[in-house]
Each structure stands twice: as structure tokens, then as C-alpha cells.
Amino acid sequence: MQTRRSFLLSTGAVIAGSTATSFAANETLRVGLIGTGGRCRHLLKSLLTIPNVSVTAISDVRDDALAETRKMLGDKLFVTKHFPELLERKDIDAVLIASPDHWHVPMTVAACEAKKDVYVEKPLTHDLSEGKAVIDAQNKHERIVQVGTQQRSMPHIAKAKEIIEAGGIGKVVKVHMTWNRNTNRVQRFKGNLDPKGVDWKAFLGSAKAQEYDEYRMRNWRWFWDFGGGIFTDLMVHWIDVAHWILNVDHPEKAVSLGQHTVSEGVWETPDTVQTILTYKGGIQMHFEGTFANAREGAHIVFMGSEANLYIDRGAYVITPELKSTKAKPEELILSTNPKHRGADFYDKPDGELLHLQNWLESIKTRKKPSAPAEGGVGSASAAHLANGAMRNGGVAVWKE
């Protein structure tokens, strides 16, 4: 794989010869996949159910990931370990990017410059400084960029947004979010990949040079060079919902705590965290997350002067305040789960499918998708500020 500098130069050469593609409503959209690990293959299951979509190319730095994806797609597609080669191709209209976080912006910018529309996993950015470049690339090249915060495409959350915007719970004064799990995924394992089947330098990209480590590669979310821990992996989903519903862009201040409860010596990022974020207008947002206890699971609560509105991925529930004379109890439960409320995933609604459909519809109409780059940059900024506070004395203040 090239160095960072040579990658930029070679991509520029590709872009110069690229032309924009068009996609009529009844035409087949030709999609390339960049980063074909487990998350990509999960999305692929939904993507393959959508009419008039064809996956024509795949790219990954790992032979095993490419092999598993080919099992789902067959042999009639272009395969490469070097994603710029995929972006060069004229038989690709759009790309789905599911790489580690530190590659999201470089790949999205390169894809926009190559006139490809983009679906990119969250968090959009790996660092606060990346936001302007990816928004500029989206807008300059008139690309559809959908960030993978799929809650924006879930109908019950859109309905909850309408209720809050109409004053249905009064003035929102505080937002509470959790994403608690109790799993054994922290445990190290004996590597079984042949290092010769991995382009380790390409995986590293702009990250600092380091020895090959299969655990870090498979669990990149929990190492600072590649991910950002619980705040960027999990909180970003709910903070994106809060930003979207309350029409805010970034916090003004973060106060954070983090510790290793079960991951000491294995992960770099803490497995148990909390942050309080303050926003213009006086709204406070609190998030807690852990891998040591699953109490309350994954949800967000908008706390209003008249009522509280609870949302998870399968329901919303309105509970009036005791003194309220305006708000009425209301429930919209789209699916049940035998484990608990606030589960990580529900069978209904299929958020990934709805979000991909929204992306494809936006490609047809050239109208902004539900989660454009601006939203992705904003939600990621809250996670980055929370991490900045946690890693630098507990407090971080937004600087323009």
C-alpha cells in the first residue's frame, strides 16, 4: 500500500479523469464495498434485498474478509486490496464504506472527488479537525453522503421528533442517554489469521507505525489510533438523535470520566464512561456506558417540563410529569424483545434497511439524505469533545 502522501497524489490523478454518473429511478445502482468486515456484511444482507442494486466491486486489506464477502456475492465482481483502484472504476456509481474510523474521512473525501455517492459508517470523523474537509467534499462535488446513524430513518423516532418539535413534552431541559452492555468481548484470543493475508500498512494508513497485532485489527474500536471507544462507537448514535431533534450542532463543554472495569491491560479506551455535555440555551445531556453491566440497555430520554419521552430502537414511551396538565401518556411499540427494553437491536424496525433505502432514494432524487455529512460531523464532535475531556483532566471546552 502507498504512503499517506502517495495515496493523496494517486487519488488526485484518478479524480482528474473522473466524471459524474447519473442514476434514473429504474436503472441499476452499481455499488462498491470498501471495508468488508462484519459490519459491512451485516449491511450487505439488507442491501441485497433492495431492487435495482448490484454490488460490482469490493475492497479490503484482509484476504479473509474478501473471501467471506465473495461467498455472499459470487465471483463476478472486481476484488482489490487497494481501494483507490475501486474508485477508478467506471462501473461503480456509489460506495459503502465500513472501514475503521480513522479511514472514514480519507475514503469519503476520495470517493466524493471520484464522483461516487457514499454511505459511510459512523462516526464520520476520527478527529475534530476532519469535519470541514468531508463537508466541503460532499458539497463541492455534489455528492449524496449518508452517515450510518440509522436512527434518523426509523419511523417511530421521526414521530417522536415531531412530538417534541410541536411542544408535546414542553420545554426540553435535559437529555439522558445510556448504552450499557455486559459481555465478554474484552477477552483476548489466539490469532488465527495468516499475517501474509493482511496488508497491515494499508490498515494503519495515517496511524503511527506499529507491529502487526491481530487483536487490535479485529477490535480497532477500542484503540485510540483507529477508534474512540464507547463515546464514538455507541454514544454517537443517541447524541445524533438528540442533535437532530433539538437542532443543535455541538456541545460547548464536556465533563467526562472513564475507567477500566473489565478491560485493564487489553483495551486502550475505557470500558466504563460517563459524560455531561452542555449546549447553547442551557440544555444538559448526560451519557453513561459500560461493558460490565447491562442495566437500562441502550436508550435516550428527553426530559421536558411537561413529560419525559423515552426512545429506544423499538419504541417510544411518553410519561407525563406528575404536575402536568397538558401531556398525555402515549406508547408506540413497534417490536418486542424477550430480553429487555433498550436492547441493542430489535427485529422491527429494520433500521439498516430503512437507512439504506433512504440513501438510495436520495441518490435518485439528489435530495439530502436523512443523515448527511453535516449531521455526522456534529454528532461525532460531541463524542470527540467527551473523549478530549476524559483524556485531559476531565473537562474540555469547545473552541471555534
Quick synopsis:
With 400 residues, the chain is of the alpha/beta class.
Question: In terms of topology, how is this protein built?
Answer:
Layout: H1 4-16, E1 29-34, H2 38-47, E2 53-59, H3 63-73, E3 78-80, H4 83-88, E4 94-97, H5 104-113, E5 117-120, H6 131-140, E6 145-147, H7 155-165, E7 172-180, H8 200-204, H9 214-218, H10 229-246, E8 253-259, E9 272-278, E10 284-290, E11 298-304, E12 307-312, E13 315-320, E14 330-333, H11 351-365, H12 373-391, E15 395-397
Parallel strand pairs: 1-2, 1-4, 2-3, 4-5, 5-6, 7-10
Antiparallel strand pairs: 7-11, 8-9, 8-15, 9-10, 11-12, 12-13, 13-14
Helix pairs in contact: 5-6, 6-12, 7-10, 10-12
Could you characterize what this model shows?
The chain has 400 residues and is of the alpha/beta class. Residues 1-21 have low confidence and may be disordered. The protein contains twelve helices and 15 strands. The protein has a nine-stranded mixed beta sheet. The two termini are 35 Å apart.
Features:
single chain; about 400 residues; 15 strands
Beta strands, count = 15
Pick out the low-confidence regions: 1-21
Tell me the Rg in angstroms: 21 Å
> Given the structure, what is the number of helices?
12
- Helix-strand sequence: HEHEHEHEHEHEHEHHHEEEEEEEHHE
Largest sheet: 9 strands, mixed
Mean of pLDDT: 92
Distance between termini? 35 Å
